[in-house]
Design a protein that fits this description.
Bound molecules: flavin mononucleotide
CATH topology: TIM Barrel
Largest sheet: 8 strands, parallel, barrel
Number of domains: 1
CATH class: Alpha Beta
CATH superfamily: Aldolase class I
Radius of gyration: 21 Å
Structural class: alpha/beta
Distance between the termini: 42 Å
Number of helices: 13
Number of strands: 12
Strand order of the largest sheet: 3-4-5-6-7-8-11-12
Order of helices and strands: EEEHEHHHEHEHEHEEEHEHEHHHH
């Protein structure tokens, strides 16, 4: 039987399939269900910078005798509603978006106590500041590794791309210098030179790059005249950008590569491994089909590897990355011309 073991963030995982941060991994029941179907590791939902700074502000205000605005440990009322809709109240430890940082540390401890697969905690923010102290607390709570999601929208016309990159590097350096556990950086694709940026992040101490953050895109409600954030689950079509960059970067940067966004099927997973991913993380597919989806993918992975004479995932990894591909330019501009020349209309006639 082909070996699915994979190395990621200092751990040897029994599968390259990893549960991405989502409400499913915020509940102990969800984590156990994922362990039961053979997931390689779980990434907990994020502890957000806004949450921590809000809590600290509330504490400081209380200390000087001022009544705090909003509920302690919470985000804004609108964000609280999200937490209520996804939390689940089974009595088992769970962490819903917007609950206190202490709840988060409790989930890390509880997850480590009940499952024997690696537990990767997640922090989500954009600045260097006191909120980063939580990286150490997360490490002390027992997390095997930390994913840092720098979910930053560069909306200020006065801030250049170079400044944005510097900011990313400062945050990464601050976190990597403060903990001993490996740190993965989840980043957006919007850099003018993603390869250079990712190499710089690795040099700043990142053990892995997680490609790519999927931004929640706003929409406009024509009736209420309000801007509404919409969270739609992904589909396999969204895989391609991650596929390209993992293939380009495999073997060229000094860090591991994790795929996120658009992995739903066995074919999707195989493509990302062939491109060079160390692990393939999934959120939408697990939310849509449930943890048992992993069983089917792993069964099909075994069959495919067997049929194609690969003895292990390690054997297969990167076989079609840019450095190993028979057509390396297919990952660059050349594929654009080829695609235009081959276009045959909407129904392919
Ligand atoms: C409901 C939901 C909640 C999520 N929460 C987080 C989070 O807390 N932190 C984070 O870094 N990513 C979060 N994500 C993003 C996922 O981890 C993942 O990167 C993204 O959904 C793309 O992967 P997918 O195509 O497999 O869904 C969330 C996604 C969904 C759908």
């Amino acid at each position: 039987m082909p070996d699915l073991h994979t190395s990621y963030l200092g751990c040897r995982l029994k599968s390259p399939l990893v549960a991405a941060a989502s409400p499913l991994t915020g509940k102990l029941d969800g984590i156990k269900a994922l362990r039961d179907v053979g997931i390689g590791a779980v990434i907990l939902p994020s502890l957000f910078e806004e949450q921590i700074t809000h809590e600290r502000l509330a504490e400081q205000l209380t200390a000087v005798g001022v009544r705090s605005v909003g509920k302690p440990g919470g985000l804004s009322p609108g964000e609280g509603a999200l937490s209520d809709s996804i939390s689940g109240h089974s009595g088992a430890p769970s962490y819903a978006y917007g609950r206190s940082a202490e709840h988060y540390l409790e989930l890390v401890r509880a997850a480590k106590a009940v499952v024997d697969i690696p537990v990767i905690a997640s922090m989500n923010g954009t600045t260097t500041g006191a909120w980063l102290d939580y990286a150490q607390l997360i490490e002390q709570a027992g997390a095997d590794a930390l994913e840092l999601n720098i979910y930053y929208i560069a909306a200020d016309p006065g801030i250049s791309g170079a400044e944005v990159e510097l900011r990313f590097l400062e945050v990464v350096r601050a976190v990597c210098d403060s903990v001993r556990i490996p740190v993965a950086i989840k980043i957006p694709p919007f850099f003018s030179a993603p390869a250079y940026t990712i190499r710089s992040l690795a040099r700043a101490g990142a053990h892995a790059a997680v490609l790519f953050n999927r931004f929640v895109q706003p929409d406009i409600d024509l009736d209420s005249f309000q801007v509404i954030p919409t969270l739609r689950l992904s589909d396999s079509e969204e895989l391609r950008m991650t596929l390209r960059w993992i293939a380009i970067l495999h073997g060229k940067v000094d860090c591991e590569l994790a795929a996120t966004t658009g992995a739903h099927t066995t074919e999707d997973v195989l493509k990302l491994l062939l491109a060079g991913a160390n692990v393939v993380t999934m959120a939408s597919a697990l939310l849509r089909y449930g943890p048992r989806h992993i069983l089917e993918i792993e069964r099909e992975l075994h069959t495919w590897l067997d049929d194609h004479d690969f003895s292990s995932v390690d054997d297969l990894r990167g076989s079609l990355s840019q450095v190993h591909s028979p057509d390396p330019l297919a990952y660059e501009r050349a594929s654009y011309m080829k695609a235009l020349l081959n276009y045959r209309g909407p129904s392919g006639e």
